[in-house]
Design brief:
Number of helices of chain B: 2
Number of domains of chain B: 1
Largest sheet of chain B: 10 strands, antiparallel, barrel
CATH architecture of chain B: Beta Barrel
Number of helices of chain A: 11
CATH class of the largest domain in chain A: Alpha Beta
CATH topology of chain B: Lipocalin
Oligomer: heterodimer
Structural class of chain A: alpha/beta
Shape of chain A: elongated
Strand content of chain A: 15-25%
Structural class of chain B: mainly beta
Helix content of chain B: under 10%
Radius of gyration of chain A: 25 Å
Largest interface: A-B, 47 and 48 residues
Number of strands of chain A: 13
CATH superfamily of chain B: OPCA outer membrane adhesin/invasin
Shape of chain B: elongated
Number of domains of chain A: 2
Order of helices and strands of chain A: HHHHEEHHEEEHEHEEEHEEEEHH
Strand content of chain B: over 45%
Chain lengths: 346, 282
Amino acid sequence: MRQFLLFLIAVSFASCKMSVEEPSNINDYKTNFESLWKIMDEHYCYFTYKKINWDSIGNVYRAKLQRPDTLNYVQFFRICGNMLSELKDGHVNLASSFDVARYWKWYTDYPDNFSSTILYSDRYLGKNYYIAGGFQYNVLPKSAIGYIYYGDFSSSFSGANLSYAIGMLGNCQGLILDVRNNGGGLLTYAEDIAARFTTQSLTYGYIRHKTGTGHDDFSDPIAQTLTPYATGSIATNWVEKPVVVLTNRTCYSATNDFVCIMKQLPNVVIIGDQTGGGGGLPMNSELPNGWMIRYSACPMYDVNMQDIEFGISPDIKVDMSTTDIAKGVDTIIETAITYLNQHKVN
Amino acid sequence: MRTLRIKAVLFFVLFSLASIFSQEPKNTITSRGWSFGLGGVSVYDEYLSPLVYTGTVFRADYESMHFISDSNNKLSLQQTLMVSGGMTDNVAKTNSIFYLALRPGIGMHYHFRPMANLKILVGGIWDLAFVSKYSFNNGNNPYSADFSTQINASFIAQYLLNVKKFPIMIRYSLRSPLAGVMFVPEYGASYYEMFTLGKLGNAIHFSSLHNSLAWNNSLTADLMLKKMIIRLSYIHDYEKHHANSLHFESMQNVFSIGSVINFSIFDRGKRKAPASYNDINK
């Protein structure tokens, strides 16, 4: 009996070790390259939509590692970053302790359509604007049009911030909501803001996620629903009077999703340039050497199940003209003012 | 409304079970032990990272055991609680995962006495396990929770050793899950979908030996001093499970120290200790 017990104890303590093996050399280039390629192969969501042959791309860049002894870690990082750039995706980044590989052509290849110098001039927002959470707002000079600038969907705000901003502009005939140069942030903020511009629940889009390692292993679409904000005493939801949302190519990720929601609302018009896109909800993983990889994981669609990865077209396409810029005029804001003056609610 | 009703029923059932099991029968000795320890933990959570994270873990264990009645010295009730937490890092030290685990359990054992000073306990334990993991660098997949409830097989062997009239209770215990239910997120599901949109998908799974394996080992020595009992323990917890093409694994190795108290209130405090009573340690 005693021997049996000792045997049982010895076996049960000794038999338990982690079954997952770590690479013996975490800095080996080939090991890290294969890990990166596999993570993307199994998790990235746009291979089929973008018609990308990941096997072929892998072979091209794998060939550059034939003589790893001739590479230093910066060169290796560049090879990995260049391979990821083939995906043409702003949500794909490789982050090391010394650099972040990124793809920015979704906005660098297009006009800026935004000038903070002009925006903060006395013609528009000026210097004495109000600040509530991440919102900067005021009534535009010599007009009855309210203007709110929100430049970062990571910039936090409370329900009260939003109520006061909308409430203080409540007597205006129209509202400009400027989200240009807003590279994204939290999806929930996009829904929180949009909830102030409707009194009815509506489905504004869909999202899916990978259910397996195959390139086309996706869940059924899950509806994204906007629920109207339950109004309080400070301000009612802005649904009677017209709203213009201003966009440019730097509107990305959560901002793209926000524009997707606002486009469904009957009193809202989108003016400016096409958004930059970023329709894939990003998630993170990492390589054995500790470099962090971010990738598009969950594709999002508009209400017609059209992919929003490459952006959303405005209702009225306008670029800032160089002549206007020279005069200190923001062509896109001026177009919005004209639109709102033409669509006054009596 | 339906969810609220289910929660209310669940709370009532759990509260009732807890009330029933927490009642201690008269004229029986209850043994209660606490121990606090420090050790190492390894965590592998494929939802968060493809790498194993390792670090230091602080752990507290509580255990209470007594016979179910004053006329029965074969069947005992046991209540357990484990709380542990620690910070783990990847090998390159570029990211950390905060790890927190909580596991209350309740069970019964049948006592065999094959030879002098040796007791073998065989039984089952029903437990709830909640493990929370937070990865500091992840964006839309920063958090992973293992939630499960399982029926475990339990085996305890205890031997009373006398070293020069100094009694030491050596005890080995092993617990391993047989069947239950566990939560595992879908392969690529984001927490935005699960908790903002409320779509869990195929996240609840029946668990058994085909997809869940665990060994909760401990070796303890209770040093019976004149006025107190000191408990020294080595604990080795290993757990792995998989579902939805995701693999999860964790291991703890902890050395702990604590104390054991044996007590009883005879006839609810109305009289002194009788000549014979049911002692869980015998």
